[in-house]
Amino acid sequence: MVSGIAESQGALHVKSLSEKDIWAEVRAAERRHGDRAEAELARRIHALTAAEQFEEASFWSAVAARLKHLHDIKLPGSAVLPKLMLEEIDGDRSS
User: Fold this and answer.
1) pLDDT tens figures, 23-52
2) Are 11 and 40 in contact (CB under 8 A)?
3) CB 91 within 8 A of CB 83
4) CA-CA distance, 93 to 26, in Å (whole number)?
5) What would the mean pLDDT of 83-88 be, rounded to a whole number?
6) Which of 48, 13, 42, 11 is nearest to 29 (CA)?
7) DSSP codes of every residue in the chain
8) What is the pairing mode between strands 5-8 and 11-14?
9) Strand partners, 5
10) Whether the model pTM is above 0.85
């Protein structure tokens, strides 16, 4: 059993999951995949959806949503930083 997911005849089936189970998988995804965790989860969700394993895809979608939320909290304004850096570089050139 992996954090609320039980393996049955080669397929994983979602059991009743708590937020604790979902966050455990968020932390595991970050440890396993680092910066590529969101992309890996998206790949997994796509593959599960294509295989019509909708319950499991739903679970991993919940994990991905929490991971994105965590990254938004940990890296507030991260999308703005590169723009500011480019503005500084461009400003240095005009001097």
Assistant:
1) 999 999 999 998 899 999 999 999 999 999
2) no
3) no
4) 43
5) 52
6) 42
7) -BTTEEEETTEEEE----HHHHHHHHHHHHHHHGGGHHHHHHHHHHHHHHTT-HHHHHHHHHHHHHHHHHHHHHSTTTTHHHHHHHHHHHHHHT-
8) antiparallel
9) 2, 14
10) no
Give the Cα separation of 60 and 51 in Å (integer).
Answer: 14
The domain ranges of the chain are 5-93
The token pair that represents 51 in the structure block? 């295989």
> Do the Cβ atoms of 54 and 12 come closer than 8 Å?
no
Per-residue CA distances from 17 to 3, 4, 5, 13, 59 (Å): 8, 6, 8, 11, 9
Q: How long a stretch of residues is the chain?
A: 95
Q: Which two tokens stand for residue 54?
A: 């909708």
